[in-house]
Every structure is written in structure tokens, then in C-alpha cells.
Amino acid sequence: MANVVVVGAQWGDEGKGKIVDWLSERADVIARFQGGHNAGHTLVIDGKVYKLHVLPSGVVRGGKLSVIGNGVVLDPWHLVKEIASVREQGVDISKETLMIAENTPLILPIHGELDRAREEAASAGTKIGTTGRGIGPAYEDKVGRRSVRVADLADEATLAARVDRALLHHNALRKGLGMEPVDRDALIAQLKEIAPSVLEFAAPVWKVLNEKRKAGKRILFEGAQGALLDIDFGTYPFVTSSNVIAGQAATGVGIGPGSIDYVLGIVKAYTTRVGEGPFPTELHDEDGQRLGERGHEFGTTTGRKRRCGWFDAALVRQTCATSGITGISLTKLDVLDGFETLKICVGYELDGKQLDYLPTAADEQARCTPIYEEMPGWSESTEGARSWNDLPANAIKYVKRVEELIECPVALLSTSPEREDTILVTDPFAD
Ligand code: IMP
Question: Are 15 and 9 spatial neighbours (Cβ–Cβ below 8 Å)?
């Protein structure tokens, strides 16, 4: 297959970084198509840990082109810091290895301030639990046609006009929220100062990618967050502000949907969530604590403790459908080692009726109780397994049952953060 999309199939933090890195060895181009520096991808290569937020995971791999597509919202100051930090680790980043779409909207300091002010002002039950990175307000400005985009940094008059347009809206909003108005000239000066460091990488990404596609190059589309945080199909309003599902890969870089050959869904062997919102299989007991401890479930971006629960097959079946997932990569199976009994949610009970999907209405979601199927666990360690023969029989049964319930085959199985600790069933890039 020439072009592969990787999406998180739960609420994010499924372990996409490792899989993207693993696949990037086979790809020529690695492209981010949505989200921003709210994402956190941890890569462990030869024992060296890389923490990436907005840079595509491909940057740590030499000889590849990494791309930030127009579907991303980009904080230029964060970008510069992240580039400096990976360069310090010996990674080479140049305009030959990194391209940023000229039509990418920028995240400005006003976006982060607004994001945090709203969260602080929200009462219990209405807080989203955002990462506070300004993601939502930046996307609002994009659809409100008042973004400053990468290309605008190249021309002083255009930049000033774009800033004025954005501030017309933001200063009115800030007044209502009791915040100080923005110093226009200071903001323009800040943007002019950072401009060369961003423009160095600016390119017509849609054109470059279409040329790569025609030349038969392999493109890997790297999703951030997870399908259950999708602005349309997630647990709204407790979602992120972009489309996360696989269809976004096409619009987020400017390539036709027919160019996508394989969608790989990354699925954690249990469930986690950061931030607020419904989570039917959440555990508040020792089992939940154990999953969190064994899985080191703390956010890469905010350091927040992740909520943990049993595997929800009904939700993953739903995301396999909305993203058209071809095969999954099951991650962190080793975290389940040592549990006597494992539970899998196969559907929900709502007002005496059984459902095989999570309903859309928030009040119904809150009233849904999971219907569980129990499976025997295993006492052996699966950590570092590299073939099916290394897995205990009950672990194999668990994986097979997951496949049946989500109606999608396992393509890859990951058994530790190390790149090589992976069992390959189907190579998404194989013809
Ligand atoms: P925002 O994307 O910062 O607006 O946050 C909206 C919701 O998405 C919050 O619940 C965040 O915790 C969640 N979120 C955003 N990015 C990630 C991620 O990369 N992993 C997991 N959750 C995320």
C-alpha cells in the first residue's frame, strides 16, 4: 500500500508515537494533518526518549520528509522551542526534512489565554479539561475567517491586516470576560520576530504531496488525539476542536480521499481518558489504579493523571466504522499481565434496553451502564513479546476476542515502548 493513515481509535494516548515511528521507516513522507501541540507523542529509540508535540514523529528518522499540514493549528513559539529541543538531542531538522503548509493557521498567545480563561470561568460539569494550549480558540478563528496563517507572516501589510481582523473579535470578547485588550503593535512585533523561523519551512504542501504521490512515494499520515475526541463523532462537547477521524487526513494536507490505501487504528488493550467527559468503563477501584500504575498513565503534554478503565469494544467498533479502519495496532497488552479476570464492554444498557453503540445525547450517555463479558487473565509476562509463540494462551484468546467484537483484524501488536517489541501480522505498507 502506498499511503497509510494512523488514527487513535479511543480518547488519545493509545501509543501512536511508537507505531508511527515504526511505520515511518517504511515511509518516504510523514504528515501531521490535525491537532496542534496539545498532542504528546513519546518515542523510545535505542533507549533514547524523544517527546514530540507538534513535529511529526518522522523527524527523528533521517532521510524522511516530515510535513505539518494545513489541518494543524501551529503555535510558532512552541514550534521553535520543540525544534531546538530535538536538535539538542542530535536530530537534524532543515527545510529539506521539514515542511509546513503555507495555509496553516497560527495559534497566538491570545488563543491560549482565552482557552485558559474560559476553563477557569467554567463551573463544575461544564469544564472540558482542555490542555490549555489554545487549540479550540485557534480553530474557532480558522472557521471564523480571522486566522493569521503561515503565509501571512511573509508580508508586513497583510500581517497587520490579519492581526487587526482577529483583534476586532478578540478584544470585544476579552472585554466581556474582564480581560485586558491586546497590544496590537506588540503582537505584530512578536510575529515579525518569529516569522523567519517559521517561513524557513513554509511550502505548498498540497503540491509537494501530490507530486510525491504521483512519483509513487509512500506517505504516512500521522493523526493526533483519538477518534472519540473528534469534534463531530466524539463525546461532544468534551472533545478537541478538530476532526480526528481518518477522513481528515485528506483535507488536512490537500490530497484526494482516494489516495488513502490503508487506515491503521491504534487501540490500547484497555481504555484511558484525560480531561472531562463520559467514560462508561471507567474504574474507580484498585483495578483502575493498577492499570494507571502499570501503564504509566500520565499525560505527555500536561502531566495529568489519566482516567483508566476496561476495554470498551462497543466504542472501538464505532470508531472502526467512522474512520474506516482497515486493521488495528493493539498496544500495551503487557499492562494487563497478572489480572486474574479481565472485563470487556460489549454494549450498554439504557433504560432497560440493550444498545451496541454509545448514543449521541449527553444525558443518555450518562445513563448508559456497560454490559461486560469476562475473560480469564494470565499470570505470565507478555512484555517484550515479539511473536505469537511468546504469548500465553489466554492473552491470545483476549486478542482474538477483541478482534471479533470490534469487527476488525489486528495488524500489529505492541508489547513494550521499545520499537522492536512488536508482533507484525500485516504490514500496512505491504502491496
Ligand atoms: P484541547 O484539545 O486542548 O482543546 O482539549 C480538549 C480535550 O481533548 C481534553 O479532554 C483534552 O484532555 C483532550 N486532549 C487533547 N489532546 C489530547 C491528546 O493528545 N491525548 C489525549 N487527550 C487529549
Answer: no
